[in-house]
Specification:
CATH class: Mainly Alpha
Low-confidence stretches: none
Strand content: under 5%
Number of domains: 1
Shape: globular
Number of strands: 3
CATH topology: Rhopdopsin 7-helix transmembrane proteins
């Protein structure tokens, strides 16, 4: 902790220094946050309250994914929208580390969940006769445990990286959230080795897992070739939703972490898409294209309406 003895807090430049634009952004991101948390928690509650969905590994992982999306948004957006109300946007060194840990913890777990969902679809489509024996509750619980553990280890590595950086003066971050590359730009040392470590821990992981997921979905789609049928159309629709979410998550992630430290100037925009807009879009992708989810939501709201009328 002695490395940061000259820096007790950081100052965010945020998204804009124009007060009028900041007011517009405040309203926009407040609505995005409410919609994101509301949409994702609606999916979680619907699946938990529907035994038929909760017993399906696909929906079990979907509920976990939605929970992670809601948590990621809650780590980033509330601080960002509060800062939009102030001219001076500050965060203490300790809170910066906490935010860095939390963001990478939830997103790291989400990477593993997306991989687990791809494996679930592979088994369901390519090995349907063995699906129930392979994707049992024990394996699903183990995969969730691996996701939590993987996210924790990934975020701990980020914290270790940050604690090795000497911050001896500059404390203005051209961002709205604490992340490794913005902090590396403030370090009073040669950061080339740290950039390589970030790439090894985040960038390369995103590239490798994204490539494996694309290959796995390619195998799944190849196995579905031939005359179309109701089962094939449903499988294609499900895989289409998964592929959409995978692309929305991994492409911005690769742009952020698998690059030189000063490769492009629109890092904040990519970060907004990856960690703010993608959690908003995920519930729409899974709900609008899934009849089972839509029917379950209607039934839950129907039961809620009946209970409300009784009171």
């Amino acid at each position: 902790m002695q490395n940061r003895s000259f820096v007790d807090e950081f100052i965010f430049l945020g998204l804009s220094q124009n007060p009028k634009i900041e007011k517009i952004l405040f309203v926009a991101f407040l609505l995005i946050y409410l919609a994101t948390v509301g949409g994702n928690m609606l999916i979680v509650v619907t699946i938990v309250r529907s035994p038929s969905l909760l017993g399906s590994p696909m929906y079990f992982f979907l509920a976990f994914l939605s929970l992670l999306d809601a948590c990621t948004s809650s780590v980033i957006i509330p601080k960002m929208i509060v800062d939009l109300l102030y001219d001076r946007k500050t965060i203490s060194f300790e809170c910066c580390l906490t935010q860095l840990f939390a963001v990478h913890f939830f997103t790291g777990a989400e990477v593993i969940v997306l991989a687990a969902m791809a494996y679930d679809r592979y088994v369901a489509i390519c090995k349907p006769l063995h699906y129930s024996s392979i994707m049992n509750r024990r394996l699903c619980g183990t995969l969730v445990g691996v996701a939590w553990t993987g996210g924790f280890l990934h975020s701990i590595i980020q914290i270790i990286f940050t604690l090795q950086l000497p911050f001896c003066g500059p404390n203005v971050i051209d961002h709205f959230v604490c992340d490794l590359f913005p902090l590396l730009k403030l370090a009073c040392t040669d950061t080339h080795i740290f950039v390589l470590l970030v790439f090894a821990n985040s960038g390369s992981i995103c590239i490798i897992i994204f490539s494996l997921l694309l290959v796995s979905y390619g195998v799944i789609l190849f196995s579905l070739r031939g005359p179309s049928s109701t089962g094939r159309r449903k499988a294609l629709s499900t895989c289409g939703s998964h592929i959409t979410v995978v692309i929305l998550f991994f492409v911005p992630c690769i742009l952020i972490y698998a690059r030189p430290i000063s490769a492009f100037s629109f890092e904040k925009n990519v970060f907004i898409f990856d960690d703010i807009l993608t959690p908003l879009l995920n519930p729409m992708v899974y709900t609008f294209r899934n009849k089972e989810m839509k029917n379950a939501i209607r039934k839950m709201w129907g039961r809620f309406a009946v209970v409300s009328e009784q009171y």
